Structure to design on (641 residues):
């Protein structure tokens, strides 16, 4: 499952290697983040080829502009997720706007609502992937495996109090996916990490 | 409460069969979901879908509400009720608790606000989408990047098959659970006159790759994953030593060191170029396999080949499909095998396993000699002339005595010892003995 790439040292080192033009570093970067990038892009765009395209753009951007990442601002993983989100939402808006301009069905309001909905869904995915494992495991049991909180507690080997706490906290984190952004900076990337 | 959203309720009429469902194989996301490449079949009419839909709370569905008249909600304090909000939003508390929470929500504004937010959050929970990335995407993405900004420190051409194959295998392992890691695998290869095999598990195969890739690490001066064992050894010796050194059978924990080593090898050869001396061609550094040596550039192609072959073993064990390498990588692997064939022939001849060299055409090194034309079909294929009588002789069309035609992947299965020389689907024309010897020599290239 999604591994936490929380080592600031790895992030700094990766940036130096990319800046130095080391192709092997690009491969390692891809190996670590491709499924995150592709998954988020796919959640927004709901199209395999469009998600492939965003994946290409994201890695090309990081490879061409490694200095645009500042390790002091936070983990590389968060930065990559934010970049992916921005490019994917841009792409969605552009394709939907073009379809509308060609006389496709729908209104501008519907378009905005679709874009907003896709953005929230992608943030929610990222929040779930990045939340602490104990919270994710509790949600997984209670929601996908339909265990009640007492069974969840037993499965996790924790008290019922703790199971309730984890379910509530997990949902609280998830609900931040709805928070609207300051322009240009999608929220939800980082808060949950 | 608004809540649940436009989902159809899945709860069975009894509404109390959650425990049963969990036991019935919804235990892990994959069980319930089919696997990545074999989606669960559509349920037969009348049966519930195998993937449960998100639950709506019972009051949103059309099912009769539980009779709560007889249940006086227990009196719970605000603190307890608040702590139940997450479980309540997920419909994961008892009927009594649900009733108590809902009664409380009518009178407590802050809890009602939170309850609404948490219910909305439940609507955002989605199964992760297929984690399967198109394996070809990696090459396309990296090539696209490198076109836009040429690397100052490229990965050498001869290391790219290894880079690509290790990435493909790692992607296959990505979301293996314990069941997959411990699935039995039979390693098969060919020795002497016939096939042989060794039982292990998926984790054992990764341990095997880690141990044998360690030969390359050792040649490059990196840490040997077999700390404390004798340094070189044959691939089989190293693997057995590695398996024996741990008290427990290998587990998924072997993945990280294997992957770190593969990355370290690619990183290191990118920097050093792997020449044995500064004035020599890149990739010439000798890598010892115990009883023979390969130059680094060939050793990495060999390791890429082994990685693919064992990835197929693993994929077969867990019933996933696994594609062949990219054609240009496949071509490099076949080329290496074709170049190793004359040596393998000579070795089998010394061991009395192949027919003696034809005396009428005694050849010296560098001279053209009796040859077999190996025609490999498919996108990774090509044409090779295999000198039959001496490893140092040069293949020659003028001295061609036989011709074999095989599909690229079939030839690789033969060279991996997964298809026997007798059964390999090969078109054959010419000297039958030469053909037999070459097919057996190809199979004998395989090892554990």
């Amino acid at each position: 499952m999604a591994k936490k790439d929380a080592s600031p040292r790895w992030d700094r080192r990766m940036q130096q290697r990319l800046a130095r033009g080391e192709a092997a570093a690009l491969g390692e970067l891809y190996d670590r983040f491709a499924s995150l990038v592709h998954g988020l892009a796919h959640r927004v765009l709901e199209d395999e080829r469009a998600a492939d395209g965003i994946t290409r753009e994201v890695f090309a951007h990081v490879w061409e502009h490694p200095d645009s990442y500042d390790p002091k601002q936070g983990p590389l993983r968060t930065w990559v997720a934010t970049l992916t989100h921005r490019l994917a939402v841009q792409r969605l808006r552009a394709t939907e706007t073009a379809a509308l301009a060609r006389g496709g069905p729908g209104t501008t309001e519907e378009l905005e609502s679709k874009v907003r909905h896709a953005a929230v869904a992608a943030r929610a995915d990222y929040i779930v992937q990045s939340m602490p494992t104990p919270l994710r495991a509790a949600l997984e049991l209670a929601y996908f495996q339909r265990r009640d909180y007492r069974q969840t507690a037993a499965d996790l080997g924790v008290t019922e109090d703790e199971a309730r706490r984890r379910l509530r906290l997990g949902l609280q984190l998830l609900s931040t996916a709805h928070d609207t952004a300051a322009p240009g900076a999608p929220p939800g990337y980082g808060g949950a990490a | 409460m608004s809540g649940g959203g436009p989902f159809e309720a899945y709860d069975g009429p009894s509404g109390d069969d959650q425990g049963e469902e969990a036991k019935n194989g919804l235990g892990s996301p994959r069980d319930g979901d089919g696997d990545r490449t074999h989606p669960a079949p559509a349920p037969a009419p009348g049966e519930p879908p195998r993937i449960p839909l998100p639950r709506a709370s019972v009051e949103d569905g059309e099912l009769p509400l539980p009779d709560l008249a007889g249940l006086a909600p227990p009196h719970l304090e605000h603190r307890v009720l608040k702590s139940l909000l997450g479980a309540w939003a997920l419909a994961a508390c008892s009927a009594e608790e649900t009733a108590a929470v809902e009664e409380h929500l009518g009178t407590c504004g802050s809890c009602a606000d939170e309850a609404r937010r948490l219910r909305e959050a439940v609507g955002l929970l989605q199964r992760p989408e297929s984690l399967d990335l198109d394996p070809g995407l990696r090459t396309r993405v990296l090539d696209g990047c490198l076109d836009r900004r040429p690397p100052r420190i490229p990965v050498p051409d001869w290391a790219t098959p290894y880079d690509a194959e290790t990435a493909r295998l790692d992607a296959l392992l990505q979301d293996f659970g314990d069941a997959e890691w411990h699935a039995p695998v039979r390693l098969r290869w060919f020795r002497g006159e016939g096939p042989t095999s060794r039982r292990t598990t998926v984790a054992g195969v990764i341990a095997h790759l880690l141990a044998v890739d360690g030969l390359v690490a050792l040649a490059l001066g990196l840490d040997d994953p077999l700390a404390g064992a004798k340094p070189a050894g044959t691939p089989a010796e190293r693997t057995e030593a590695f398996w024996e050194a741990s008290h427990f059978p290998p587990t998924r924990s072997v993945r990280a060191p294997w992957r770190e080593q593969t990355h370290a090898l690619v990183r290191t050869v990118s920097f050093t170029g792997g020449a044995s001396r500064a004035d020599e061609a890149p990739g010439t550094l000798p890598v010892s396999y115990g009883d023979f040596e390969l130059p680094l550039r060939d050793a990495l192609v060999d390791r890429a080949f082994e990685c693919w072959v064992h990835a197929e073993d693993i994929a077969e064990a867990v019933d996933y499909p696994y594609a062949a390498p990219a054609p240009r990588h496949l071509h490099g692997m076949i080329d290496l095998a074709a170049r190793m064939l004359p040596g393998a022939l000579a070795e089998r001849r010394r061991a009395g396993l192949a027919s003696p060299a034809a005396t009428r055409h005694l050849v010296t090194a560098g001279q053209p000699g009796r040859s077999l034309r190996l025609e490999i079909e498919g996108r990774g294929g090509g044409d090779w002339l295999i000198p039959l009588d001496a490893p140092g002789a040069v293949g020659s069309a003028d001295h061609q005595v036989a011709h074999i035609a095989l599909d690229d992947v079939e030839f690789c299965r033969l060279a991996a010892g997964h298809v026997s020389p007798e059964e390999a689907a090969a078109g054959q024309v010419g000297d039958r003995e030469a053909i037999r010897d070459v097919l057996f020599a190809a199979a004998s290239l395989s090892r554990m």
Residues 1-5, 182-187 of chain A have pLDDT under 50 and may be disordered. Residues 173 and 192 of chain A are 6 Å apart (CA to CA). Chain A has two domains: 8-107, 131-193.
